[in-house]
TrEMBL record:
In the N-terminal section; belongs to the KAE1 / TsaD family. In the C-terminal section; belongs to the protein kinase superfamily. Tyr protein kinase family. BUD32 subfamily. Fe cation binds at H110, H114, D290. Its cofactor is Fe(2+). It catalyses: L-seryl-[protein] + ATP = O-phospho-L-seryl-[protein] + ADP + H(+); L-threonyl-[protein] + ATP = O-phospho-L-threonyl-[protein] + ADP + H(+); L-threonylcarbamoyladenylate + adenosine(37) in tRNA = N(6)-L-threonylcarbamoyladenosine(37) in tRNA + AMP + H(+). This is Probable bifunctional tRNA threonylcarbamoyladenosine biosynthesis protein. Its main location: cytoplasm. GO terms for biological process: tRNA threonylcarbamoyladenosine modification. Its EC number is 2.3.1.234, 2.7.11.1. It is an enzyme of class 2 (transferase).
């Protein structure tokens, strides 16, 4: 099969021919380069109108000159997301060509194409993908027939955030390569302090461009500002990528998007993956920047699956989100981290077994966290004094968790020390304060700030994430048989909502309430001590852990972001997320501020292409 691809979402007019028999892809591109400032939609569309016919003609002429009598089997085009005026030019050209050639028309999601070209060329089965482009930045993982958004920017795209600074200093578009070149010339002195905002697996660039502008205006050398800008922006992207690998248990990461051409970003991601024994792949530059090759490659997969469009159905969509695309071209039923090449992420329950502890639970225990190395220490039997003080049944073994935030070699040493120190202190303080507010959390036994190490009470039997896919059915069956509704995933999700409501009422934000940071089960050990602090006994086997990204705030916006992070982790990992989210919001609504739920609707709409 030979597929003609056409790309033109924003700045690059491109055509390509992909041959599935030889796996060869011929790409012809003509980028739009504004004389000053950023991309002007009208000028970009005018460029597309002039350049698209030229690049298409070049590719078709080259194809006609090849020996043999092979024609074009399908026409694929970038349907969105992107600039509406540019997309309309591309869509019109694709429809005309498909009609003239009498071949099927395929509408491709531009961001999914960035992922699929990396998966295609790497040979990875189920990778997490970091898309780092001009107008966007997000993490994707395949789950239950779609690419789910694991995390994303809540405001500007990564390239746009960098370009905002370069426009301020008078540099032309694109600004990324100029920042990269200037950063190399930095003298390596003290790192400038810029905002570093990570919320679960979401992140924000809204303040960093302004802070970089201010630093430049205050007389800081431009090389030092560029160096700090890269270290902070790419540090955030690498951290959330590691968090996504940790949440899913995946051991493959692919990079997509034009910003992925930056050597420092690729170095950070490669260093992070090597430390986790994960594989990392970045396609060559021609497949990272906007290009029609990725459109043709994914278009060929979609055409082979029969996923084509009739002309009346082929309208463009400037806000086309990747999680809206049915993944028709993949025949495997496995999901990111739960199949493919990785054995560590397997979540299958043994055939005929109702016990979800078989197989999957152990794999969850073995998963590496994104920040810390955790050691579980057995302290023997609890003495009588501790039993009375803590309300523990006599004879139960006491277990402690020693959690050490390890240095991250991908981050600048100065930034890394600051992050590990601050998060260790925040976790110790907020874990204790939340417990006093009636939220079940571990007891804090010791805090070693210089070594970024905490010693905590061991709570729960496993992470909530372990019960949100195939395991959940076995758990529900067991819970129903025991008459313990609170042990079912919906009951646990509701309880998490109740816990966050209490936390927010006390003026605290968790910051990272993913399903990996909720511990469930083991009520025999923990129910009494939790119940003594005012928490319902039925909720005593659900604990919130890892408050490292937490802080004090009474703002509705910050509380809504907590809810968004939890729901995002549910959507990314649960086979049937809707009942869990409904239960979670019901629990929050019973004890929390209804304004937070109203604001949550606004937060959901802030993803870059909502």
């Amino acid at each position: 099969m030979r597929v003609l691809g056409i790309e033109g979402t924003a700045w690059c007019a491109s055509a390509a021919l992909h041959d599935t028999e030889t796996d060869e892809t011929r790409i012809e591109s003509n980028p739009y380069e504004p004389e000053s400032g950023g991309i002007h939609p009208r000028e970009a569309a005018e460029h597309m109108a002039d350049a698209i016919p030229e690049v298409v003609d070049t590719v078709l002429s080259d194809a006609a000159a090849e020996p043999g009598d092979r024609g074009i089997d399908a026409v694929a085009f970038s349907r969105g997301p992107g600039l509406g005026p540019c997309l309309r030019v591309v869509g019109t050209a694709a429809r005309s060509l498909a009609g003239a050639l009498d071949v099927p028309l395929v509408g491709v999601n531009h961001m999914v194409a960035h992922l699929e070209v990396g998966r295609h060329r790497s040979g990875f089965e189920n990778p997490v993908c970091l898309n780092a482009s001009g107008a966007n930045a997000h993490l994707l993982g395949y789950h239950d027939g779609r690419y789910r958004i694991l995390g994303e920017t809540m405001d500007a795209g990564v390239g746009n955030a960098i370009d905002k600074f370069t426009r301020h200093v008078g540099w032309s578009h694109p600004g990324g390569p100029k920042v990269e070149a200037a950063a190399v010339e930095a003298d390596g002195g003290a790192l400038l302090d810029l905002p570093y905002v990570v919320k679960g697996m979401d992140f924000s660039f809204s303040g960093i461009s302004s802070a970089a502008n201010d630093a430049y205006d205050d007389g800081e050398p431009i090389e030092e500002v560029c160096f700090a800008l890269q270290e902070h922006v790419f540090g955030m992207l690498t951290e959330v990528s590691e968090r996504a690998l940790s949440l899913t248990g995946a051991d493959e990461l692919v990079l997509g998007g034009g910003v992925g051409q930056n050597d420092r970003l690729r170095e950070m991601l490669d260093t992070m993956c090597a430390a986790r024994d994960a594989e990392f792949y970045a396609p060559e530059s021609k497949f990272l920047r906007d290009n029609a090759g990725m459109i043709a490659i994914l278009g060929a997969k979609m055409a082979a699956a029969g996923d084509t469009l009739q002309i009346p159905e082929s309208s463009i969509d400037p806000n086309f989100r990747p999680d809206e695309v049915p993944v028709t071209w993949r025949s495997d039923a496995s999901s990111v981290g739960y199949g493919g090449t990785s054995d560590r992420g397997s979540r299958e329950v043994e055939s005929g077994s109702d016990d979800p502890a078989h197989g999957s639970r152990e794999s969850y225990r073995d998963r590496r966290g994104a920040e810390a190395v955790v050691e579980i220490v057995e302290e023997g039997r609890v003495d009588e004094a501790s039993r009375v003080d803590e309300g523990i049944d006599g004879g139960v073994a006491s277990r402690l968790v020693v959690k050490r935030r390890v240095p991250k070699r991908y981050r600048h040493p100065e930034l890394d020390r600051s992050i590990r120190r601050d998060r260790t202190v925040s976790e110790a303080r907020l874990t204790s304060e939340a417990r006093r507010a009636g939220v079940p959390t571990p007891l804090v036994h010791d805090v070693d700030v210089p070594n970024a190490t905490l010693t905590l009470q061991h709570v729960g039997d496993h992470d909530l994430a372990a019960d949100l896919d195939g395991v959940s059915k076995a758990t529900e069956k067991r819970g129903a048989a025991e008459g313990e509704n609170s042990r079912r995933p919906e009951g646990w999700a509701r309880t998490v909502g109740e816990h966050l409501a209490r936390l927010h009422s006390a003026g605290m934000v968790h910051g990272d309430p993913t399903t990996r940071n909720v511990r469930v089960g083991d009520r025999r050990l923990n129910a009494d001590r939790t119940g003594r602090e005012g928490v319902d006994q039925a909720a005593a086997d659900v604990f919130l852990i890892d408050f490292g990204l937490g802080y004090h705030s009474g703002h509705v916006e910050d509380h809504a972001m907590d809810l968004h992070v939890f729901e995002g982790s549910v959507v990314a990992t649960a086979a049937e997320p809707e009942p869990l989210i409904e239960a979670f919001e019901s629990g929050y609504g019973e004890y929390g501020n209804r304004e937070v739920l109203d604001r949550l609707r606004d937060v959901r709409g802030r993803g870059r292409y909502q």
